[in-house]
What we know:
The protein is an alpha+beta fold. It contains ten helices and five strands, in the order H-H-H-H-H-H-E-H-H-H-E-E-H-E-E. It folds into two domains: 100 residues, Tyrosyl-Transfer RNA Synthetase; 89 residues, Structural Genomics Hypothetical 15.5 Kd Protein In mrcA-pckA Intergenic Region, Chain A, CATH 3.10.290. The longest helix is centred in the middle third of the chain and has 17 residues. The protein is globular.
Amino acid sequence: MDQLLNLQMCRKVMEISDQAPEVVITTPLIEGTDGTGAKMSKSKGNYVGLTASPDEVYGRLMSIPDHLTEPYLQLLTEWTDDEIRVVTKRLEAGSAHPMAVKRILAGEVVAALHGLDAAAAARAEFTARFSKRSFGDTQNLPVVSLKDHAEGTLGALISRTLDFAPSISAVRRVAQQNGLRLIRESDGDQRTTQLSEASVQQTLDAVVNDVGALDGAKLYLKVGRKVARIDV
């Protein structure tokens, strides 16, 4: 219904202008990746950008709630209704794992936007980031320098420098959902510090100092499913 009234009014204007009214075809709105029922919208931060990198597109689709898998297969892929029904029944029966189906969905969308090679690389990158314990072998992680951003707030770093969230308010929501973390990694071992909502307004230097001595360890910032390395 989002644009149907506007389109119908266009038909009226065409009639008044002695033109044959064009046929109106509408499609369902795409629900946002947060699964709240709101439509996909850049302002809400629950969208998949068509010009986003393959890793970004793949990661966003892998993070969707399970109940969005079926409508996303319908709206974002060329799967037939029969094929989708088969997969849906297997998911309901437990013979197909939701994450496995999401990998297929994410791969198909990335392939449509960037090609098969990019889809394969994005899948491998996602596996390296989120299916392995260590981030050390992960490629293409964004890197921020503690020296350059020491006095900036964590919220500004995440939303403006890294573009991991559309706003500082969105960063706060991630923290409220326990999705904001600092990870210290050394020789494959990790120590995770969950960051509070209050830390969003702290300087990056203060947040890092709260973690304690690094002793040569590597430091990573995790925002939901997104990860960046902090160069100390």
